[in-house]
Amino acid sequence: MNRLTWLCDGVNRAVASVIRWLALFMVLIQFVIVLGRYVFGVNSIAAQESVLYLHATLFMLGAGYTLLVDKHVRVDVFYSRATDETRRRIDIFGHLFLLLPSMTTLLYWSWPSVRNSWKIFEGSLSVGGIEAVFLLKSLIPAFCVLVILQSLSLLIRLLGQGRAA
């Protein structure tokens, strides 16, 4: 089981090490867009859409890593005051009955849209936009898979803690 958790964690660490650079590229492109528009009077829809694509990629593919390092948003009405054992039980419940089912459902229901988008190589609705909406839609199943992998890894650890206690 340790090997499986190591593998799942490794996938999200590898993805994060690549996509972290997207934040820098996104800022640089946005700077060039603003400079071009307000200083030189030049505008590019494709450049504007590239910021959207980078932003979506950064957040969708970074979600699994965010879960790994425990920096995700947590509604801690009860969690902050709970004992370690209660926190472990809340986390197990959250993974089993909230996170994994919702990711599986999203993966299942988004797949036809992604498949159809790839069939027609769906492009931008805007004239001059990036002709790769099919790639943008592909982030949805990738997001689901990365979060599912990380959730399973964390769930294995949590269940292992229960046996050790």
UniProtKB/TrEMBL annotation:
One of its GO terms (cellular component) is plasma membrane. Its main location: membrane. GO terms for molecular function: transmembrane transporter activity. Residues 26-159 form the Tripartite ATP-independent periplasmic transporters DctQ component domain. It comes from the Bacteria. It is a multi-pass membrane protein. Pfam families: DctQ. The chain crosses the membrane at residues 21-40, 52-69, 90-111. InterPro entries: DctQ, TRAP_DctQ. Keywords: Cell inner membrane, Cell membrane, Membrane, Transmembrane, Transmembrane helix, Transport. It is found in: Cell inner membrane. Belongs to the TRAP transporter small permease family. Part of the tripartite ATP-independent periplasmic (TRAP) transport system. The complex comprises the extracytoplasmic solute receptor protein and the two transmembrane proteins. This is TRAP transporter small permease protein. It comes from Salinihabitans flavidus. The lineage of its organism: Bacteria, Pseudomonadati, Pseudomonadota, Alphaproteobacteria, Rhodobacterales.
